[in-house]
Design brief:
The chain is of the alpha+beta class. It is built from 4 helices and 8 strands; from the N terminus they run H-E-E-H-H-E-E-E-H-E-E-E. The strands form 2 sheets. It has a 6-stranded mixed beta sheet with strand order 3-4-2-1-6-7, with helices on both faces. It has a two-stranded antiparallel ribbon with strand order 5-8. Bound molecules: zinc ion (ZN). Zinc ion binds next to loops.
Length: 181
């Protein structure tokens, strides 16, 4: 085994450890989670974002205005093109897309917001699957998400592709996920 291979394996191991550490239900306001898998011609993705990032609140919608905000966000998130931008030349077609609100109990590990511990912490979850005729041309994916949701600051991305599993953090300053070839 060459020295380069050893280093590569160490990097992959570090990536995997980092990814499993985030696999829990806590959320941090401003920070969403993305799981993305690229396999053959399929791009699958799950986005989970705190309600605070998407609509600015996390309690159950009470007023007509709040309910409308939830409905609108669900509609927006049900379109993957509202979240990511892919090069036209990749010829991607949406084959599955859904969005939902998931609420967690206030006592479930929300160390970051003691101020509203008794309230539910709503998160938005969106799932997408796209089939891309020319997936190999995708060098990077732009998250237009940040342009649409002003409170969103960063996304922790776990990407699984032919190179293995990698963890990336992208943010509103550089909202781009670069794919390794
Ligand atoms: Zn919260």
């Amino acid at each position: 085994m060459t020295k380069r291979n050893v280093i590569l394996i160490l990097i992959l191991m570090t990536c995997s450890l980092g990814a499993s550490a985030t696999a829990q239900s806590t959320h941090v306001h401003g920070q969403g989670q993305v799981s993305m898998a690229i396999d053959q011609n399929l791009l699958s993705m799950t986005l989970e974002s705190p309600g605070a990032d998407i609509i600015g609140f996390e309690h159950e919608a009470r007023t007509a205005e709040e309910k409308a905000a939830v409905r609108e966000a669900l509609k927006q998130l049900s379109d993957p093109m509202f979240v990511i931008q892919l090069p036209e030349s990749a010829s991607c077609k949406v084959i599955q897309a859904s969005s939902e609100v998931a609420s967690e109990n206030g006592d479930e590990g929300h160390a970051d917001h003691e101020d509203h511990e008794s309230e539910a912490h709503g998160s938005f979850i969106a799932e997408y699957q796209l089939a891309c005729a020319n997936i190999a041309v995708i060098d990077f994916i732009t998250f237009v998400y940040f342009g649409h949701f002003r409170n969103a600051q960063s996304l922790m991305v776990v990407l699984i592709d032919k190179n293995g599993q990698h963890r990336h953090e992208i943010n509103r300053d550089i909202p781009i996920l670069f794919l390794e070839k």
